[in-house]
């Protein structure tokens, strides 16, 4: 059986063009794309651009697409597409997220320029109150009902947020992939953790950990059961150690 021939120019994925613009649009709309969703998206992009691929070079073309896209994003708007892992999962499952690379750790309000355009100062103040409660909680979470009530603690010089407003703003944070809600519990999203890593490390130093296995930031982590060991791990990293060694220790 003969191999399907490629019809695109040799450097179509290595040079920024229409396929890359479609990819950026998808990332802007969705913010996060699971690894399992990337391949189908790539095929749709190729189909819409009249590019026919063989299965043998598909992986290389995907890497070239991401590399060329990042080269333009970083030079033009200081943004980048990176591979991340959801720390809520017990298995290491990757996703692609679009982040703003601006180091916001020294900013006055500690948030990115991009997101200052998305949220009003009052909304950001409310978010900071929620974030404080999440990081101060040993489980790094907050009940949705408590998150709504936090709005009562707004600065007295700030216009009060009414209960119905708090609910709408909280939903806005979830829609913008800053927060996620699971069974009435509010958590920090994977996107927020990675995009705001400098900010989290600077402001919540005592609450932010580094996984002892993969060396990446860990917010909701597990501790080594050995009382003489201070190591902390992502759940999926701890599981890998157990599988590799046959012991949770």
How large is the radius of gyration?
Answer: 21 Å
Low-confidence stretches: 1-8
Strand content: 5-15%
Largest beta-sheet details: 3 strands, antiparallel
Q: Count the helices. How many?
A: 10
- Average pLDDT figure: 86
Distance between the termini: 52 Å
Q: What global shape is seen? A: globular
Order of helices and strands: HEHHEEHHEHHEEHHEEEEH
- Overall strand count: 10
Strand order of the largest sheet: 1-3-2
Q: What is the share of helical residues?
A: 40-55%
Structural class: alpha+beta
Overview of this protein structure:
The chain is an alpha+beta fold and 249 residues long. Helix content is 44%, strand content 14%. The chain is built from 10 helices and 10 strands. The protein has helices spanning 18-30, 35-48, 58-77, 113-116, 121-136, 144-149, 163-175, 190-195, 197-203, 235-245, and strands at 32-34, 79-85, 94-100, 142-143, 179-182, 185-188, 209-210, 217-218, 222-223, 232-233. The strands form 4 sheets. It has a 3-stranded antiparallel beta sheet with strand order 1-3-2. Strands 4-6-5 form a 3-stranded antiparallel beta sheet. Strand 9 (222-223) and strand 10 (232-233) form a beta hairpin. Helix 1 (18-30) packs across helix 3. The protein is globular. The N and C termini lie far apart (52 Å).
């Amino acid at each position: 059986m003969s191999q399907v021939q490629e019809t695109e120019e040799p450097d179509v994925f290595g040079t920024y063009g229409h396929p890359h613009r479609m990819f950026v649009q998808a990332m802007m709309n969705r913010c996060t794309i699971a690894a399992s969703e990337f391949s189908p998206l790539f095929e749709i992009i190729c189909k819409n651009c009249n590019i026919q691929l063989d299965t043998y070079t598909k992986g290389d073309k995907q890497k070239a697409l991401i590399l060329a896209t990042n080269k333009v994003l970083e030079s033009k708007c200081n943004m980048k597409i990176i591979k991340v892992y959801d720390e809520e999962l017990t298995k290491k499952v990757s996703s692609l997220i679009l982040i703003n690379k601006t180091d916001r750790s020294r900013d006055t309000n500690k948030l990115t320029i991009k997101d200052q355009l998305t949220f009003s100062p009052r909304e950001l103040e409310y978010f900071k109150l929620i974030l404080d409660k999440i990081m101060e909680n040993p489980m790094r979470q907050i009940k949705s009902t408590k998150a709504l009530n936090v709005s009562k603690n707004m600065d007295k010089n700030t216009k009060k947020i009414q209960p119905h407003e708090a609910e709408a703003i909280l939903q806005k944070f979830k829609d913008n992939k800053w927060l996620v809600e699971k069974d009435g519990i509010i958590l920090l999203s994977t996107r927020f953790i990675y995009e705001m890593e400098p900010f989290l490390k600077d402001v919540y130093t005592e609450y932010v950990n580094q996984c002892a296995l993969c060396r990446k930031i860990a917010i909701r982590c597990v501790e080594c059961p050995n009382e003489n060991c201070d190591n902390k791990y992502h759940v999926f990293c701890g599981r890998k150690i157990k599988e590799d060694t046959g012991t949770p220790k």
